[in-house]
Design goal:
CATH architecture of the largest domain: 3-Layer(aba) Sandwich
Organism: Metamycoplasma hominis (strain ATCC 23114 / DSM 25592 / NBRC 14850 / NCTC 10111 / PG21) (Mycoplasma hominis)
Keywords: Cell membrane, Cytoplasm, GTP-binding, Membrane, Nucleotide-binding, Ribosome biogenesis, RNA-binding, rRNA-binding
Low-confidence stretches: 32-39
GO molecular function, one term: GTP binding
CATH class of the largest domain: Alpha Beta
Membrane topology: Peripheral membrane protein
Number of helices: 9
CATH topology of the largest domain: Rossmann fold
Function: An essential GTPase that binds both GDP and GTP, with rapid nucleotide exchange. Plays a role in 16S rRNA processing and 30S ribosomal subunit biogenesis and possibly also in cell cycle regulation and energy metabolism.
Distance between the termini: 34 Å
Largest sheet: 7 strands, mixed
Number of strands: 10
CATH superfamily of the largest domain: P-loop containing nucleotide triphosphate hydrolases
Oligomer: single chain
């Protein structure tokens, strides 16, 4: 028996939810980019120590829905709030609390989940402690009794927050083995690695409208390379040459970088083949959204 709990990470896009999860686990489970709307799945990261198992749910950033995909992503986040023991609301230290933040706070309050903690992320970007204190006071006025600050270069800030979360845990059988850090498959991880690599290599609006499908993932023979065949979907005909690049240099770089990341994480040689396909309506197509796992 251990003490366990489920913790939902909620906030606007690009507020540091995935960075938080990766720091807590000391493993890059969730993809991180400087582009909003990067996370498109509820990803579970599992923190284990001798006495506790805390299941963190990294959710897509809640944003104004512009299509069926956006609606689906927001719904995943709302469901996570409902089904969690503790809600962590993240908001960056270097950004003002705006209408988007207040909308999410209202959604949290609608669930009547009293176990809620406000987390001011990126506090290492502030110049003075007074700036963080001012934002903490604003959050307390919005209904958060407990407010914590975390920073990429401040490891003790994560430890303090973990210790606080432990006070909400209850005795139960753990859901996962002690050595498991996530609930995702190698196939899913391959998809996310390709998407992360494509987003980080492209600097225009294109990353917001790409999706990755793994057509084939063959890891049955340990003596051979893992064989992975993937498709990157774009919405417009004009986007395809951007992703492919001059003389195929961009898609080649994405393929090579993705393969190297996979080999490092999988600890196995990988053969990777990526092709680009146009699917103009995929963000509003129910069948295609389900096919892509959203």
């Amino acid at each position: 028996m251990k003490k366990v709990c489920n913790v939902c990470l909620i906030g606007r896009p690009n507020v540091g939810k995935s960075t938080f999860l990766n720091n807590v686990l000391n493993f890059n489970l969730s993809i991180i980019t400087d582009k909003p709307q990067t996370t498109k799945d509820n990803i579970r990261g599992i923190y284990n120590d001798k006495d506790y198992q805390i299941i963190f749910i990294d959710t897509p950033g809640i944003h104004k829905a512009e299509n069926l995909l956006s609606e689906r992503l927001n719904s995943k986040s709302y469901e996570a709030i409902e089904n969690s023991d503790v809600v962590l609301f993240l908001t960056p230290a270097n950004e003002a609390i705006g209408t988007g933040d207040k909308f999410i706070i209202e959604k949290i309050n609608e669930t009547n989940n009293e176990n809620k903690i406000a987390v001011i992320s990126k506090i290492d970007l502030l110049n003075t402690k007074e700036e963080a204190d001012k934002k903490a006071e604003e959050l307390k006025k919005l209904g958060f009794e407990k407010v914590f600050g975390i920073g990429q270069n401040l490891p003790t800030s994560y430890l303090d927050l973990i210790n606080e979360i432990k006070t909400y845990c209850y005795e139960d059988e753990p859901l996962y083995p002690d050595d498991q850090i996530g609930d995702i498959t190698l196939r899913f991880m391959a998809k996310e690695i390709i998407r992360e690599t494509a987003i980080n290599n492209l600097k225009f609006e294109l990353p917001h409208s790409i999706a990755v499908e793994i057509e084939q993932f063959d890891d049955k023979n340990e003596d051979e390379d893992y064989k992975i065949y993937a498709l990157i979907y774009v919405k417009k005909k004009s986007q395809k040459p951007i992703l492919i690049g001059k003389d195929g240099q961009m898609i080649k770089k994405i393929s090579i970088d993705s393969r190297h990341k996979m080999e490092k994480i999988f600890n196995h040689k990988v053969f990777l083949n990526i092709k680009v396909k146009i699917s103009e309506d995929w963000v509003d197509n129910e069948f295609k959204i389900k096919q892509l796992g959203y």
